[in-house]
Amino acid sequence: MACRQCGAPTAGTTYCHNCTTMTMNNLRSLAVGLPELRLIAARKASVTARQHGGGNRSVAPIPLNMTAYQLQTDIIRFAGMLGKALALRYNRHMPAERLLNAASKRTPALLQRRDAPSIISVARRYEHRLAMQLTPPDDRRMIGVCPVCERDLWCTDSEIAGQWIACTCGQALKVRDVQEQHLLTCALADGINSRGTAAGISKLLKVNGIDVKRWTISQWKKRGLLAAVGTQDGKPVYRVWDVWRLMNR
User: Fold this and answer.
1) What tens digit of pLDDT does each residue of 74-133 get?
2) Among 63, 144, 156, 186, which is most buried by a count of CB atoms within 10 Å?
3) CA-to-CA distance for 81 and 133, rounded, in angstroms?
4) Pair type for strands 152-155 and 141-145
């Protein structure tokens, strides 16, 4: 019998020992690395968001490291799916790390499921993305995700300046389109009315390869190109999306 993943001979099982061990180790790595990822994702840029009713505004932080925050969310969701797949007894307050550890110990049972190929693929992809977040390349920034293969796109400043990048899957992508989609899915997850000060928005965008100076944002306001939508500690507050549109007008 051949392994469904790599084609190697097996002793009557669906997946070989190496593929089973690889998936087990990937799940363990997610459990071990998730606490540190939480710390990375907790770095926040202070912005304000409108509350429901009455038009009041309050501080509602957007993650400064949008990629880490999104990956954290994906891993936690994946852990919950594994818990349900294995019929584990858990509640929504149980740390995802415990679910991932429990799932790693039951990897052979997971690989008997019909959706085992998807579980193997997701565990491997998330483990790679986690490793890149914990030990990121010194000269690269993550600008978004390939819409074809869903790989994270890590680029040098010169590649970003070149406006076009090539994913390892062979897809040619426009940098601006990738960044725009990343903003929509991550930074603006709470709605396109997310907002912040000039300094906050500048920091928020810079992490993902989008360079706009705080001074530039302030000048846009003076020239009447950008309207403030409120104040925070006496400083003008702008919509993130309005700044992005001005950058690409």
Assistant:
1) 999 999 999 999 988 777 778 899 999 999 999 999 999 999 999 999 999 999 989 988
2) 144
3) 23
4) antiparallel
